[in-house]
Amino acid sequence: MKMARYNFLLASLLLSCLLWSAQVDGKEYMRCQLARELLQKYNINKTFLSNWICLIEHESNRDTKVVKRNPNGFASYGLFQISSKEWCRVSRKGGICDKKCEDFLDDNIDDDVQCAKRIFERVGFKNWPGWTASCRNTQNLPNLGLACNIQTV
Ligand SMILES: *[C@@H]1O[C@H](CO)[C@@H](O)[C@H](O)[C@H]1NC(C)=O
Predict the structure, then answer these.
(1) How far, in Å, is the centroid of ligand 1 from the Cα of 31?
(2) Ligand 1 centroid, distance to 44 Cα (angstroms)
(3) How much is the pTM?
(4) What value, to the nearest 5°, has the Cα angle with vertex 45 and ends 39 and 49?
């Protein structure tokens, strides 16, 4: 009886370690932490910061691990849901951003931001269905001044 309980505990411990290690690569951001990082570390233009936050929240819910498969056979990856249709390539570097799509899923968003900026320069926010559906109307944009004490105007 005692032994069985011990084994059960050991098995649960092992299982949680496994689950934890499978999760540890990605990252879920808090809204204000993300806003500050985009602003300070990545020099995102303040004018568009609330658009970026809205976009990310509707595309990936601020979770870098998200992959969404599309009926067209392509998929979108990471915080910005960057599509393998043209911007990145599955399994090896490629696409317009010259990135491997899977690399967008880890907790380092340097490459993601770089590619997202490129998409923005070429296409604008309308590239992202989440932005078009939910952020195009400026009334829907988060008030980062109020929520995060970041003055964007
Ligand atoms: C930010 O974007 C605005 C609007 O397009 C532009 O006028 C301004 O020069 C940009 N600021 C920087 C630092 O790029």
Answers:
(1) 22
(2) 10
(3) 0.83
(4) 65
Domain with 111 in it: what CATH number? 1.10.530.10
> Which tens digit of pLDDT belongs to each residue from 18-53?
666 555 589 999 999 999 999 999 999 999 999 999
- Tell me which residue range forms the domain holding 73: 26-148
Q: Which helix (H) or strand (E) holds 142?
A: none
The one-letter amino acid code at 82 reads I
Residue 58 within any structural domain of the chain: yes
Residue owning the nearest CA to atom 4 of ligand 1: 47
3-state secondary structure of 100: strand
Going by alpha carbons, the residue nearest to atom 5 of ligand 1 is 47
Rounded Cα distance, 75 and 84, in Å: 6
Number of domains into which the chain is organized: 1
